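Me: I hope this is not a bother. Any chance you could explain this protein sequence and its structure tokens? It all follows right here:
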Amino acid sequence: MDNNVIVISKGLTFMVNTIFEKLKESGYEPIDARPAVEDLKEKLEMSDLIVVYLGDFISESGEAFIYLRDVCLESEKFLYLIGSKEELKEVKKLLAADVVSCEFERPINVKDLINTMGETRDESVRKKSILVVDDDGMFLRSVHDWLSDKYRVTMVNSGMNAITYLAKHTPDLILLDYEMPIASGPKVLEMIRSETSTSDTPVMFLTGKGDKESVMKVLALKPNGYLLKTMKPMEIHQAVDDFFRANKYKKME
């Protein structure tokens, strides 16, 4: 998966084939994909690197671009757009600005694309990763906006989706809501602690439950912190910064 690159296009034109060849020469494995939801559902799990070679299909592929946007918001993906000035302007009406890692106007020097892919990925590797678990979509989006300037933020909207995500990924920190349907925050924390592969993953509660009974129940599970949703965004950001700073010093001792 590390060397895979999803290349989304309408078809294997001369330029798309050139991109494939240059990617292979640079050690990547390009995967051909079409701007259709069903194809994207199958392919997007294969890589966190996505190149879209735009064309006259944008308006007819709106559903696919919205799906692509949602996947990039929920999981840390690197999205690179290639197109004319008009195509780039049109597609950005469907994509959130912060999901686009870089855009290139045609004609493109493929070496510039490959160099940029390496640079953005290297920068991301240096960032700590955070999984945010909450059934409130608006709050998820807010936390993403607050923290994504400094951290790689992935969002899931249920406890069970968090467990599924953790089967394949190891975030540096989990921010977990307390009250969720089916699998509550405390239940999810118990599941995380019971699995050898995730037992050491740091978990902080980020919740609106601030009553004494709830706090005592959660503290008995020994989370790495307990933050309230009523805190200001800068206070939540600072608490996360402080956690990683303290954790860094512990490792140095």
DSSP finds ten helices and ten strands in the chain. Residues 249-253 have pLDDT under 50 and may be disordered. The first strand starts at residue 4 and ends at 8. The chain has two domains: 4-125, 127-252.
